[in-house]
Amino acid sequence: MRKKISMGIVLMLVVNMLLGAMVPVAGAAAGGNPIVITMLPTDGTKGVPVDTKLIQLAFDRNVKLSDGEIEVSVDKGAAVVTQTITPQPYVIRGYDVTIPSNTLVNGTTYHVKIKAGTFVEASTGLNPNEEFDMSFTTLSAQGSITQPVISVRTPELGKIVSGDSTNLKVTFDKTVVKNTGSVSVIRASDNQIVSKKSVEDPSITIDSIDNKTASWTVTGLIPGERYYVLIDSGAFKDIDDHLFAGINSAQEWYFNVKGNPVVWDVTVPTVPAANVTGIATTGSISLNFSRPVYPDKGIIFLETEGKLVKGFDVTSSDVKGGGTNKITLTLPTNMSYNKTYTVTVLDGSFKDSDNNAPLKKVWSFTTGTTTSTVLTLSSLSPTDRSTNNDITTSIVATFNRNIAIQNASGVTLKKQGTTTAIPASFITSGKQLIIRPSANLQEGTTYYVDITNGAITDLATGELFVGLSGTSSWTFQTKVSDTTVPVIQSATMYSNSVIRLQYNKTLDSSINLLTSSFNVTVNGETRSLSNAYVSGESVYVTLVTGVAVGQVVRITYTGNSVRPIQDLSKNIAASLSSKEVTNGIDTVLPKPTDGYVSGSTLTLTFSESLKSLSNSSYAYDQFSVETDGYSKGISSIYQSGRTVTLYLSSSVSNGEIVKVSYSPGSYPLQDYRGQNISAFNDYFVRNAYDTKPPELTGIEGNSNKVILTYNEALKTSTIPMKSQFSVLVNNSPVYVTNVEIVSNQVFLTLASSFTADQGVTLSYISGVGGIADLNGNLAGYINLQPINYSLVTEGIRSATVRGDTITVVYNKTLKAISDLSISQFGVLVNQSNRGIQTATVSGDTVTLKLSSPVTSGQVVLLSYKIGATPLNDNQGNVIKAYSNMSVQNLSGTATTTDGVVQPDYVKSMSSGDFGKGGYLLNSDAAQSSESRSRSGQSIRKYTLDHAKVLGGLKFTSNNNVSKMLVFEVPSTENAAEVDIPLSALMEVYSMGKSTSFAVRYKDVMYDLPMDKMAYTEIARALGTSSLSYVYMKVQMESIPRARLTTATSYNGVTTNPLADPIELHITAHNGSTSSGVGEIAHTGQLYFRASSTVASTKQVSLVKYNVASGTPSYVPSSVIGSPTAMLFSGKVTGNSVIGPAIGYSFYSDTMKHWANEAISELSEKLIVESRSSSGGKFEPDKSITRAEFAVFIAKGLGLSGEETSRFPDVTSGTTGAYIGAAAKAGIITGNSDGTFKPNSNVTREQMALMMVRAMEYAGPSISLNGTSAQTLARFKDASKVQSKDLVAKAVKEGIIQGITINTFQPQGNATRAQAAVMLKRVLDKLKYL
To answer: Which residues form the signal peptide (predicted)?
Structure first.
């Protein structure tokens, strides 16, 4: 027992004295051992809290109190506690010394002293204690109870040092001293220790001034190598004996030693070497460098005959050897004999530790043959996929040996799109097969040659040729004889001294035009000309003296045969006679021609010099700058000549897309004549710090036009080669004949047209001179990306007609025109002219009112020419003319089976964008008003009309195929905000109709089923009995991925966003005043289009970003499309920040494991994870616990963590929250005693029950084909299964199998690998992957 000195003891002492029960102190018995006393805190302890109340003494045997004294005193100072001990009859084994409050002070050493004989042995009264003196030291400062941590490392993480030695320093957050342990410096390339010192080594010193910094020198460093530092746990400690945790990871502190830039190894750069033959079809490729390299980014291409065999992502497990001089790639299993393979390693695929990259390398090698008689093709003429071939061209296939025709019918020449062979003769000449068509080929037509297996043989050996599929291996196109002359589209003042003549096709820029071919008059006076030249589709004529705004300018051109204006086919343009040149403010005045930003300095260059600013101190207020859609402050402005410099309040970061706008105010920019220059909006400027490639946001097209749209402006000084693009129409190639870049779009012209019902894909090979942003970052590869069929005319987004109204929507905001001339437009309806009554411009839309309505089925064509009041975008650029553009006719929609007529304000929406069709509400179904997004951006709110929403929903819900009604927020908005009248939704829901309402904003659409809305709960939350004036507010806003604060790496899995996520926020409010706002519990389907370059779509998914906890979590989702352009579809519950992401996982113990594929996919999607104690291993063959499997299931179903007190043995935290969520969903149940037993291994039967419940929670109920007994009959241990129905369902669905063909082992434990595979089966069946 343990005693404290108290009033009770005092009373007992008095009583014992009266009774004469005092025990005299006895000396030690002869040969007896003195009592041994120990103390808590132990002798010499440091860091004892000053609020310690007890000092606990313990004895090695039972003792009694005798005569003596216990004293607690300051080291070499006075006593602070003194307790006198007198004899007592009771027996004790411990004794507590009470310390009064506020007795101990920080940073002080105290001694606990006990006089000899104070305690004696209880059984004998002998063997007293000896003199006792032990000490402890209190905390150095109040609150100093944490371990020391490193605040500064020198050199910093990843920094580059020079020389063969360097000084290493670590600065802690508090005073430290040396303890025990070692510090090691290790070379990363081979993990060799180059320096290991005990911290007690004198060369490791601690700064005598701050007592926080330890330093030492490491020598023997090799240039070009990376080194990392490890420090043993406890090597340093603070003065309270709190131990430093140490550094035990190679990623925690490493530095690089500067070396010569890496180059390919001079002696043996590659294995196989270039141009060698006889290489085996199995094995590996080695890349050898002059110094260690590390994978950075990109794909290594292995190709043969122009076809991709395999692309090796340099960051994938297929590429090994990072951190060494040798990179190894394992050859794929689909290698063929006797083929030449080309390997392409792009710039920047690997980098050394100094961030230097070796140059691009391309080389070829040839595999060996199984026999020397293999018959192969050597060459084709015309070559595969060649263009501009003559219609009388010879068609020749050359083989590696002399040949004979075995089966002439097996060789056919066909025209693309047909299966009928073209009449031709086939002869052989030595190694050549010669095909001679009976008539000339057609112009502008694609042909292909098929050779069946065995049609051609080796003349000497009879070896059969394996054949050739022309559609994939030998197609070619004949040239087109262009006989149409170029037609002028517009004549405008490009600047005050340059006239621009724009034609409808590309002109021959090799012609040096004569100024004598032109005559220019200004207000009737002839002007001298200094130059005339061709560029693209335009002719530029330069005047010696400039013109003023508003002067009448006319130009005459006289064609001649010496240096005419002509197209690339030598068709000569017609002469011009006194053609009026548009000379307005927007065309003549200076405009920005270039811009770039470096750090916090943004520079704009104008087309000509500007007048000095009258008050530069305030002129910057007229400009606004956006980075990634967010406003950037401007602190000052400077103007000189043609340049305007804006000084921003903060620097622009890597990858940010920068746009600048200008609106004239009190201190406008002026040209040198004093004319105010025009406003401009969203002018892209080059980000000098940008190293991120432009991202593809969409591909659309129709007829023979295709537009690729990127997220930022593209470089126009270099145009990709036509051969870098591949377009397949129903898997047959269609050649690209022209490439043009305007702003952030690439325009392709095809050799032939395609239709809406054809499958069209586009591929693009990135490379030098290809698509790049303004800073030269090359766009990524595109692989078989589907092309969305839609209207494609340069600058136009859509053109539709309904009744008497044609609506043309442009990609940019147009300048307002008060009196837009109808004479500039022409409308053909079934090839007959249709009158136009009015033409108006509003925002990005031109609206034409016709003299009479268009009816269903009529073909409508629209033309626009530049006239007296031309269309201009908001930057003053003249909108191009167009001729006979197809207009989508939405007039006279037929009724549905239930007789509900399609309203005029509803039009069909293609399923091309989101894989799901529907109907769009027109923009006139909403009223817009000024608002602010949740992040404070200026936007317009769209409030939908009750009657039109109701009418649209009634139509969609009565259609044969239930479809959704969609409202699309204009893409020009910075964020989406839509108010939807809930009463309209409620009315349709009350009618028992099945439909949904969706809001689309840019590449995101959120679809809310009517039957998932909690109408009653919304009314109750807002305190109203009626939904008549209640609106549901849907807000969507892009969140820049750079601003995410969530962790990207956890337990061996790294997660990176593929695109900026979207914040989805839904609330309800009463009326237009937004009173009584409340969040809505909602469940819907989120569709997200994203473009990227990833190795496999199995790595990607939608994730939810929990900003509060800093962790992403999996959203049950599927993805379709190619690895470069994907459509995500996921189930969303509640307000969230959601976006597509890619996961990378690596477990050293699963690389060759049978379940590696399932483990990798579920890990990369944040569903399964390694144990925190596993050291980066998954431990696939260890048993899985009940808690682990419950967490995996909850994550796979996308359940949000929910703390529960249901199970007394489940503690709070992340695991407990997921267990609570699974319990709430009915997926897990406890044991009969009310516990969950989270750390017990889950049995196979328990696992089967959980998986069946999970499937029935997320999907339809599972039914058996027969009885459970019949399903389980094949298992001889079926009688041991307790929950036979549920286990039978799991077996029937193929989720779980027997251990053997006739044993199930219901009480057997499952491994973590087995759990991952079975969980993947469940999620696959639910379409949650």
So the answer is: 1-28
